[in-house]
Structure to design on (165 residues):
């Protein structure tokens, strides 16, 4: 089970960083199924800095809602840094937000390969005027543990990038 106190503290810090800049954020989620948006909106007043969330579980929805290239998915897979980058950048383009975080992965229990085992999660963070950054992690545990760890990592990553902006 995730440490709710730590997650709440992270969200509060993200909120402060966004509010200071008068920015909003947007999420583009696949394997977390809206978990990041849920964590953000658990904080009262989040409508001041959370603009919207996209849950794009299928490849088609990634293309239709975020503008991810079908060629990118075909060449690199839905779980790839290339796809995550396009998800984050597409979320910015299709919203009024200035900061985006995207996540795509294999939460399990099935679906993994030798190259991308269960627990593989790819993240991307995009902010207007800054280079998009991406990263890949492999988390241990069952489906719920992987999803909870991915939510926390996505929010931590956004906070780190906001602090450097």
């Amino acid at each position: 089970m995730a440490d709710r106190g730590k997650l709440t503290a992270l969200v509060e810090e993200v909120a402060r960083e966004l509010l200071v800049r008068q920015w909003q954020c947007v999420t583009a989620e696949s394997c977390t199924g809206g978990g990041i948006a849920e964590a953000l909106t658990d904080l009262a007043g989040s409508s001041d800095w959370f603009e919207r969330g996209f849950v794009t579980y299928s490849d088609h929805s990634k293309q239709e809602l975020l503008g991810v290239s079908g060629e990118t998915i075909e060449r690199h897979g839905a779980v790839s840094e290339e796809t995550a980058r396009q998800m984050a950048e597409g979320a910015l383009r299709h919203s009024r937000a200035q900061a985006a975080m995207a996540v795509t992965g294999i939460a399990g229990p099935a679906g993994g390969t030798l190259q991308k085992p269960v627990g593989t999660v790819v993240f991307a963070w995009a902010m207007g005027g800054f280079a998009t950054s991406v990263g890949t992690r492999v988390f241990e545990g069952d489906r719920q543990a992987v999803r909870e760890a991915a939510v926390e990592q996505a929010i931590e990553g956004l906070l780190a990038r906001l602090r450097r902006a």
